[in-house]
């Protein structure tokens, strides 16, 4: 059983979907802890299920590196096989990436390398494209520049705003995340030498 730690910053809708996947008896992974950089609503999904939840508040550390060191220590207590960034709205410092790599993945609401960064949905709308997408990547020290593990196109419809488009991307993002976690667990995705699916 693949041991997964999920890191979040907000409401945790992708986390909730992954927890539901883990409830299936044939799903080969379990979320063993959920962490956040602030007290986040998504932690309640873990607490209600009796899954350990922890907070490493960014504001309590003098800089990003010291916060990253505290995060490394907190995650390591749970001995994960995979760390999933699911709405963690903070860049990990390089030594935190190095500590978890290559078993560190992230979801992103765009068809990378298109529209990286914190506002992928907004940026796609501003660019006037007819389609965007969702991606799951290996995290590196860049901004959404890691190897693509899975991605899928999502059309941009006339009249879409940021909320409606994001609402259509989220189910795709969740499905891709579950597929990648399953693939890592059953060995069909090798994170030590990932190949881009783009």
UniProtKB/TrEMBL annotation:
One of its GO terms (molecular function) is phosphoribosylglycinamide formyltransferase activity. One of its GO terms (biological process) is 'de novo' IMP biosynthetic process. Its EC number is 2.1.2.2. GO terms for cellular component: cytosol. (6R)-10-formyltetrahydrofolate binds at residues 64, 89-92, 106. Keywords: Purine biosynthesis, Transferase. The keyword Zinc-finger does not apply. It catalyses: N(1)-(5-phospho-beta-D-ribosyl)glycinamide + (6R)-10-formyltetrahydrofolate = N(2)-formyl-N(1)-(5-phospho-beta-D-ribosyl)glycinamide + (6S)-5,6,7,8-tetrahydrofolate + H(+). The record marks 144 as: Raises pKa of active site His. InterPro entries: Formyl_transf_N (IPR002376), Formyl_transf_N_sf (IPR036477), GART (IPR004607). It is an enzyme of class 2 (transferase). N(1)-(5-phospho-beta-D-ribosyl)glycinamide binds at residues 12-14. The active site is at residue 108. It comes from the Bacteria. Pathway: Purine metabolism; IMP biosynthesis via de novo pathway; N(2)-formyl-N(1)-(5-phospho-D-ribosyl)glycinamide from N(1)-(5-phospho-D-ribosyl)glycinamide (10-formyl THF route): step 1/1. Residues 3-181 form the Formyl transferase N-terminal domain. Catalyzes the transfer of a formyl group from 10-formyltetrahydrofolate to 5-phospho-ribosyl-glycinamide (GAR), producing 5-phospho-ribosyl-N-formylglycinamide (FGAR) and tetrahydrofolate. Belongs to the GART family. This is Phosphoribosylglycinamide formyltransferase. It comes from Microcella alkaliphila. The lineage of its organism: Bacteria, Bacillati, Actinomycetota, Actinomycetes, Micrococcales.
């Amino acid at each position: 059983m693949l041991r997964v730690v999920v890191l979040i910053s907000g409401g945790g809708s992708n986390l909730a979907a992954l927890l539901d996947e883990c409830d299936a008896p044939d799903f080969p992974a379990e979320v063993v802890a959920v962490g956040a950089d602030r007290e986040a609503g998504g932690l309640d999904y873990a607490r209600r299920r009796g899954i350990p939840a922890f907070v490493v508040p960014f504001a309590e550390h003098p800089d990003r590196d010291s916060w990253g060191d505290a995060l490394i220590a907190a995650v390591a207590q749970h001995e994960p096989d995979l760390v999933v960034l699911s709405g963690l709205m903070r860049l990990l410092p390089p030594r935190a990436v190095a500590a978890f790599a290559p078993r560190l993945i992230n979801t992103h609401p765009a068809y990378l390398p298109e529209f990286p960064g914190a506002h992928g949905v907004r940026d796609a709308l501003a660019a006037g494209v007819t389609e965007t997408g969702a991606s799951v990547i290996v995290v590196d020290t860049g901004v959404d520049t890691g190897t693509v593990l899975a991605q899928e196109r999502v059309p941009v419809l006339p009249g879409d705003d940021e909320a409606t488009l994001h609402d259509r991307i989220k189910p795709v993002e969740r499905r891709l995340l579950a597929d990648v976690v399953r693939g890592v667990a059953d060995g069909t995705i090798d994170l030590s030498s990932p190949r881009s699916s783009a």
